[in-house]
Amino acid sequence: MSSVAVLTQESFAEHRSGLVPQQIKVATLNSEEESDPPTYKDAFPPLPEKSACLENAQEPAGAWSNKIRPIKASVITQVFHVPLEERKYKDMNQFGEGEQAKICLEIMQRTGAHLELSLAKDQGLSIMVSGKLDAVMKARKDIVARLQTQASATVAIPKEHHRFVIGKNGEKLQDLELKTATKIQIPRPDDASNQIRITGTKEGIEKARHEVLLISAEQDKRAVERLEVEKAFHPFIAGPYNRLVGEIMQETGTRINIPPPSVNRTEIVFTGEKEQLAQAVARIKKIYEEKKKKTTTIAVEVKKSQHKYVIGPKGNSLQEILERTGVSVEIPPSDSISETVILRGEPEKLGQALTEVYAKANSFTVSSVSAPSWLHRFIIGKKGQNLAKITQQMPKVHIEFTEGEDKITLEGPTEDVNVAQEQIEAMVKDLITRMDYVEINVDHKFHRHLIGKSGANINRIKDQYKVSVRIPPDSEKSNLIRIEGDPQGVQQAKRELLELASRMVENSYSISVPIFKQFHKNIIGKGGANIKKIREESNTKIDLPAENSNSETIIITGKRANCEAARSRILSIQKDLANIAEVEVSIPARLHNSLIGTKGRLIRSIMEECGGVHIHFPVEGSGSDTVVIRGPASDVEKAKKQLLHLAEEKQTKSFTVDIRAKPEYHKFLIGKGGGKIRKVRDNTGARIIFPTAEDKDQDLITIIGKEDAVREAQKELEALIQNLDNVVEDCMLVDPKHHRHFVIRRGQVLREIAEEYGGVMVSFPRSGTQSDKVTLKGAKDCVEAAKKRIQEIIEDLVVNLCLYFFLSCCVPLPTHRSVMGPKGSRIQQITRDYNVQIKFPDREENPVHSVEPQVQENGDDAGDGRDTKDTDPGSPRRCDIIIISGRKEKCEAAKEALEALVPVTIEVEVPFDLHRYIIGQKGSGIRKMMDEFEVNIHVPAPELQSDVIAITGLAANLDRAKAGLLERVKELQAEQEDRALRSFKLSVTVDPKYHPKIIGRKGAVITQIRLEHDVNIQFPDKDDGNQPQDQITITGYEKNTEAARDAILKIVGELEQMVSEDVPLDHRVHARIIGARGKAIRKIMDEFKVDIRFPQSGAPDPNCVTVTGLPENVEEAIDHILNLEEEYLADVVDSEALQVYMKPPAHEESKAPSKGFVVRDAPWTASSSEKAPDMSSSEEFPSFGAQVAPKTLPWGPKR
């Protein structure tokens, strides 16, 4: 008789949820009558065998849930160090390979953390672990266990304290193991031993031991004492190799926990019997007090690189010094930049300890080998093979390569370093004889093209020719590319790189094409069609100036022939669009540069004078004499005459002479307003060109003309320059009351005199000396001219005549600001031109009308004593009056110049309804006009309903601004008329049931009609009960609206021919027919050209499906759907039959609880010693959604 086991249906369903449907085999059961239950193997078939792949073989039992990890804290990174002596795998050839790499890969796969390994200078292993906090801690523990040599130690604590170390559910123990990266084994409860075994690294063992003892001490309240002892005295209390504290612990039976050096704590914890504990504390205090009194400290500087030699392996050197001398040596932490080592001990023993410290530090030596930096990678070899040969023979020698330095540094024991140095020197000598390098010059703008996308080009060359190529970064702006390697490979790589560079140079040819600004949009074309076509067909890059730029030049870049073809295409477009004449003029090529002038100034002046024509000279070096003039016919003819006249003049005056003069003499030679140089030109007929600010050679003056004229001009200029070179010193008398005028504003007047008169130096006496002697030093002519100028200034100051002049305006401040110009530039120009002083009134906070001031001219009486209250009330305000000071005739001239700067206002009639269009979006339209015409345009506020727009500005600009505004008005009126024509509305009556078909899927049909006929089509709002639901409104041009109406009526006509039929279709197959995201039903509708509508949820008849279309299409679609229903319904029936065994019928759920699912021959019934599975246990019945942690035994393995 077979045994049976009972499971709840919930557990059974949960277990079956992870099985493949084909594996479920269930015997047919009748819910009303009982039959034999199925066997355990039938109800729970075994899972298929795992794949034999390595990855799956390495996964733990719960690997399928490994990808679902709980969300923890953000990603963290930890870095720790494994010293060379503690590394388990020390083979340098296997770094990054072999068993060590496999272990790291396994750890990353198991924990999900990311590992990065690197070798430190001392051959220790630096490991960076990144990931979630728990993953990092687990990975760190695994790394320490598998990559670092393990040690073990035991710590004894009372048996009753073990449970506190374990913690609730073993959490405390697990946390302690993760934190210290150790394995802690605690005896089982039935074991009488109190020894806890700790396995791990030395540092981890110390930390774990410390933490365990702290936990025990905290629990032993009867005999625990903490003693604060300075960290510096801990080594004396512990003694060499911890012998002293061990003796005290043995003698007193007290546990003494001294924090290890890596733990930054000062308290020492004592645990034990109270009397014995007190003895131990007293002895420790005594040692502490004695050492505190007797010891002293000295600080010495030891190179940071030598600290590790002082410490020794596992700190043995420090313990050895402490044992021999009784002196403690404190080394700064490795992450500190300090090089100070502190020795603490009795004064008479410090000397011996210091000697030993230096002996340890100098036990290793540092040497260097000269080797070009480009050879370093060849010395190292592929994957460090060459270097590994040396380090294997002498593992204690550390070899360091510094990038960019021509040396190699060796560090280690003296004998080993000497041997390694000889080997490396021999290697360097050999490499120099058979390796080579070369540097090529390639313009840095081509470097990124040589490198290629993601370094494709340069990497291919490196791999192909086995060379190293160094391309400088963009920031260096260097053209030198360095190639290193085998001589043959270097030459091949050089050849290929130069070929690539030459092709790039060929493709970088550039020409400029001047095109009138108004034709740029035609060259671009609608949506950029024209310019795109030209670019593609000519295979060139074409750059047009920005729309707001004043430039008319289009830049074409590419191969020369392609650029010329693109240029011809662009010019032909311009020629077709306007009455553009083109004339070719033959001028000898040798005259082209002289006709163009310095930086194109001469030719630009001709182009501007002749209405902006374009003059195109052939490329320099082409040998062509043809100059092309392009533009309006009349302007082209005018430019042709001027150009030929200038060329003829250049041919007859082809003699040129260069002379040199200091730049500070140039202004004096030119003279005020160009008077002196004009006089030379008139006398000789030669043309004299002074250097511009952009010219590199500022001393060079060029004379052009007929030879005799040039010689005469040269003679006059050289005479002037010679006089300027004769430096003299002279003095003059100036009343001290006028000195301030010359030195104020940081000596601006003196600087102007120096610039104007050949750099003459003028020295005024110091302030407060009351001396009237002024010294002048410089060229004789310059000194005399400067004295004359100073005398004129003094006369002006003495005369000090003032002419008062006022400007009457409604808004004084804006008007004055306009007169001043940007940063006062206009006023500064007037003061310089007329040598006057101009004073603007101060701004009044509460301006009131004031009387006209008394006007004083030429010393006239300043008034006749009349009361100011009797003045004309219409007189200007004081804040409107600008005062001009200077000589009378110059004041009058300055007054006229100021009046010319006073802005004038005119009014223009513009219909009010156009104002908002003139202003434009966010004022962009009106700003553009104001910038273009340099005026201020004031549009009245909307509430005024005024048609008058005021334009304020200089009289010269007002006419252009008015014409531009009226032109804009005409454009807007034309747009208004066009909008009126586009506002024609037409209504079409269409049955609402046809609206969705007219709109189309996602509006495709109606959008096509709108775009094709350029109209707006509005459908009625379904939520608006007052709006007729059968009216469709079409807006646009009348002709277009009628065409759109006809298109809609055509669709309606086609729809009216369609029929709709309802088909009963079992609702259980609707989802199968519709398909994923409606893909299947759309395919059916497209195939039969019908529309199929399924009922919505909650519909009275869930089986009713509507098919709409032409009669013959509807019949075919219905037949197809019914065939699908028959096919899918069979699957549905089979599925429902299977569900009977998976879940009880709904009417039985409300009855008594189910007995559960019964199986025969269960494994737990085979032996009476095995108990039935615990269905509430997540371990015996795991969920497939999350990984189940195996039950751990904190007391260690069973014995």
Automatic annotation (TrEMBL):
- InterPro entries the UniProt entry points to: KH_dom, KH_dom_type_1, KH_dom_type_1_sf, KH_Vigilin_N
Any idea which UniProt keywords this protein has? Acetylation, Cholesterol metabolism, Coiled coil, Cytoplasm, HDL, Lipid metabolism, Lipid transport, Nucleus, Phosphoprotein, Repeat, RNA-binding, Steroid metabolism, Sterol metabolism, Transport
| Residues covered by the K Homology domain | 149-217, 221-289, 294-362, 363-429, 434-502, 507-575, 579-648, 653-722, 726-795, 805-903, 904-970, 982-1053, 1057-1126
GO MF term list = mRNA binding
Coiled-coil regions, chain positions:
703-730
Q: What segment(s) does the record annotate as region Disordered? A: 841-877, 1145-1199
Its cellular-component GO annotations read: cytoplasm; high-density lipoprotein particle; nucleus
Q: Where is the composition biased (Basic and acidic residues)?
A: 863-877
Q: Which domain of life is it from?
A: Eukaryota
Q: Name one GO biological process term.
A: lipid transport
* Record field: compositional bias (Polar residues): 1165-1180
Q: Where in the cell is it found?
A: Cytoplasm; Nucleus
Q: What is its main location?
A: cytoplasm
Q: Does the keyword Nucleus apply?
A: yes
**Pfam families attached to this UniProt entry:** KH_1, KH_Vigilin
Task: State the function annotated in the UniProt record.
Answer: Appears to play a role in cell sterol metabolism. It may function to protect cells from over-accumulation of cholesterol.
Protein's name in the database: Vigilin
Source organism per entry reads Panthera tigris altaica (Siberian tiger)
Phylogenetic classification of the source organism: Eukaryota, Metazoa, Chordata, Craniata, Vertebrata
